[in-house]
## 1
Amino acid sequence: MKLTVVGCSGSFPSAESACSSYLVEADGFRLLLDMGNGALGELQRHCGLYDLDAVFLSHLHADHCIDMCVYFVARYYRHEGGRCDPLPVYGPEGTEHRLTTAYADTPSASSMSEVFDFHTVKPGTFEIGPFTVHTERVAHPVEAYAIRIEHGGRTLTYSGDTGVSEALDELARDADLFLCEAAFTDGKEDIPDLHLNGREAGEAAARAGVRSLVLTHIPPWTDPQINLDHARAAYPGPVALAAPGATYEI
Ligand SMILES: [Zn+2]
Ligand SMILES: [Zn+2]
């Protein structure tokens, strides 16, 4: 598997990065995890506008899904070749309604489904292209999922947005790469069931026995170095900060 960080800013974009979006490729199949603010532009640095094979939305906060509204425009009003075929989109209950409402004036209430094939995510195991994926609800104010992606004996786990979560620990068990949010800073923000801080991300990585940890979803108002230091103090394996355009062979 190849992972490309399309955008990794938490909550709102920074001058350097779009919000959450990660491209996962294997066997020529392209799965995009989340499409937050600014991600559609950055995505085009890494793959063609119409070359995605599936999208997984961890939850419906704007910083994880809102660029799907403008991606709808690109697929619905495509100038050459006509309207795009429906792209599989996996998201929580109500994803189609949320995106349609956010767009505000789609030609009809069902226009989104003409270019997106919506699948409602529940906790469980299923296939997306060549990937076997496992999803579980995590600790966030809205219905939110973490995802474990397996291919060719290798494993990537993405936390989505979550506070401390036993379900996340299980999904990350022995993962080769654990892409984990660390939006909060230990001692600065302390709101349960919302986000992890750097220490908690490191502790989750240690409990799960992952082989490497990449911290992501750090907001522009947070010092990433502090969160990185806290994660390294809690987890003995390799830890990196996600950066736009970074790639990982898993
Ligand atoms: Zn978020
Ligand atoms: Zn969120």
Note: The first helix runs from residue 39 to 43.
## 2
Amino acid sequence: MKIPSQSPAPRPRPLRLEDVDLADPGFWRLPRPVRLASFALLRRLEAPAYFGGPGQGFYAVVRHADVREASRRPDRFASAPGVTTPEPAAWAKAVFGNSMVNMDGEEHAALRRIVSRAFSPRLLAAAEENVRATARRIVDEMLVERPVDFVSAVASRMPYEVICDLLGIPAAYRPRIAERVNQASQNAGVSRPLADRLRMPGRGLRALAHMQLMMARLARERRRRPAEDLISALVSADVNGQALTSRQLGAFFSLLLVAGVETTRNAIAHGLALLTGHPDQRDLLASDFERRADGAVDEIVRHSTPIIQFRRTVTAACELGGRAFSPGDKAVLFYASANRDESVFTDPDVFDITRSPNPHLGYGGGGPHYCLGAHLARQEMKALFHELLTRPRELRAVGLPELVDSSFDNRVRALRFAFEPS
Ligand code: HEM
């Protein structure tokens, strides 16, 4: 018999705008539904709100239309000096090279052109059979080994193997590089406890240094023996008559690995959790995979929004979303909020793979920095979920994803899962 408790559990206090502080690391440790509800409050304000100390803080751009507009006005909302918070230190950029995500204009365009062909739908269509074969191999091994953690055994392996194939990284290098990718990307975000904040940059920078060394070694090999891969394209690139320096090569290598792996791995892990939590949507997808797959992977990215935010710096006086901006102001584009904007998405908190149209901003708001790997990520997710839904029986997440507190990415540390062999 259930014994009624003496005093009823206290009702949660309604969320108040004055309690919301995006600059407070504590905010990023709140449960995700509370953070999303806070963004809903911010979207109702007349203009983007300011967070942080005077001169050191940022304006939070939270509405879909505003995130889209800022992304498409790079002349006013620049990516330099850096899109992440905290900003990469000037000395780190000098030592490890600056990544094109932090650049604007022709400097950015020239670097992006070197690799953009490889990510075009036409060339990726040619690589599709390899993506499918990779998904089959990962699921073959999963069926034999019956791992416990979905993230390490499945979700991170899929994007990692695919980007390594595109780059042309030999199998012998892959385990070591995988470890470095994980360490390098753990540093993004402002929400770490002090001990971690002090420890992680060191570890992240050491990881970057190792990646640079490996890139240098691979670059030497490809200069001697070019192949049909991205490393060969990078080492033979000509930007205004100049080859890329070893720092530029290193920065590219780390960017493609980190951007290509972490985001997609988190989307895949959230995808399994969402499909487990919504069996009707899972059945719909499984019953007509070819027709539903595009809608499903887009809805997974909208709902989970693997990258929470990127920052821009205002270059000249302008207006956005009802706020007058001055040069030097920081504007943080919250994709996590834009993707729940009720003026664009009906019932934005509902996971609905039939949502159409689904103009989510999970890959960015458009403009010159729009995710280079969006098409590849879709291809990977479709190939993997096809295998996962057709090969084992009753594949499901067990419990909720173990999330990492972060203001930057919606990162899943681990996700237990189970299935019956077919
Ligand atoms: C579900 C998976 C993914 C998500 C959610 C995602 C999200 C994003 C977002 C939000 C941006 C910033 C866009 C902007 O500033 O306007 C971005 C940029 C980028 N992404 Fe992705 N991404 C994913 C997968 C990938 C993959 C597979 C690659 C492959 C290499 C990749 C490579 C990049 C690169 C290189 C950039 C920087 C582009 C530039 O600065 O020109 N991403 N991504």
Note: The longest strand covers residues 309-314.
